[in-house]
Automatic annotation (TrEMBL):
Keywords: Cell membrane, Membrane, Transmembrane, Transmembrane helix, Transport. This is Energy-coupling factor transporter transmembrane protein EcfT. Coiled coil: none annotated. The gene is ecfT. It comes from Anaerotalea alkaliphila. Transmembrane (T) component of an energy-coupling factor (ECF) ABC-transporter complex. Unlike classic ABC transporters this ECF transporter provides the energy necessary to transport a number of different substrates. It is found in: Cell membrane. CDD domains: EcfT.
Length: 267
């Protein structure tokens, strides 16, 4: 399951989304995430689903590779469904067992919240899967550039965010190696209830933290050895520029938002 997390990974390919300017992809991704909170009812989520399918096809990333990232957050989605299913009042009662009851409003809310989480995770994964770390850093820095007038360290923030994203798959791979090493020595991470499984993961934390600090120290030494001094005076081999591809993507997102707005008004 640890290897199934796709957030933070980059999938090299030649596609419509890979050729876009990273600034456009960041802005449009956040626009899509915000639009999920505006979608209402089955028609609204249906439009969001069609838009997401179009984005996945345009990325040329295998759908199986993209959707397998949902396995790692399955418990979070299941917990969200459970909470909304049994704790949301209103509407006709569909099922009742003791103090637990499922209402029509609770069922609809649970389904829509699960879809919202799934769409949010897949939409965020598309950004990192189609954008290289260097491009992502440059895009975030360019978007934060205007804030430098009020002493906001745009380059440093962009660098930290990108390093944090890139460390996700590295740390997950390290966790997988530690788990396999401990299982070879007789550790059991599968049997028992939820509490026992959580307790069995505690021995992973110490070696994982040690490995994380060691990697962070190695990264700092490597950056110092290459005379890294932040964004001041830094040049780029490739300059960011908007193209027709970015304009076309913006028009598609605008049409998607218009469709959501019309559906929200009619409903």
């Amino acid at each position: 399951m640890i290897r199934d997390i796709t957030l933070g990974q980059y999938y090299p390919a030649e596609s419509f989304l890979h050729s876009m300017d990273p600034r456009s992809k960041i802005v449009l991704t956040f626009t899509f995430i915000l639009s999920l909170f505006l979608a209402k009812g089955a028609p609204g989520y249906g439009v969001a689903f069609l838009f997401l399918v179009l984005a996945i096809r345009a990325s040329k990333v295998p759908p199986r590779f993209m959707l397998k990232g949902l396995k790692a957050v399955f418990m979070i989605i299941l917990l969200t469904v459970f909470i909304n299913l049994f704790l949301t009042p209103g509407g006709a009662v569909l099922f009742q067992w003791g103090v637990f009851k499922v209402t029509r409003t609770g069922l609809e809310t649970a389904v829509f919240m699960a879809l919202r989480l799934i769409f949010l995770i897949v939409g965020s994964s598309i950004l990192t899967l189609t954008t290289s770390p260097i491009s992502l850093t440059d895009g975030i820095e360019a978007l934060l550039k205007p804030w430098e007038k009020v002493k906001v360290p745009a380059h440093e923030i962009a660098m930290m965010m990108t390093i944090a994203l890139r460390f996700i798959p590295i740390l997950l791979e390290e966790t997988d190696k530690i788990m396999k090493a401990q299982m070879a020595r007789g550790a059991d991470f599968e049997s028992g209830g939820l509490v026992k499984k959580a307790q069995s993961l505690i021995p992973l934390l110490v070696p994982l933290f040690i490995s994380s600090f060691r990697r962070a120290d190695d990264l700092a030494l490597a950056m110092e050895a290459r005379c890294y001094r932040g964004g001041e005076g830094r040049t780029r081999m490739k300059r960011l520029s908007y193209t027709r591809v970015d304009v076309a993507a913006a028009l598609v997102v605008a049409a998607y938002l218009l469709a959501l707005g019309l559906l929200a008004r009619w409903l």
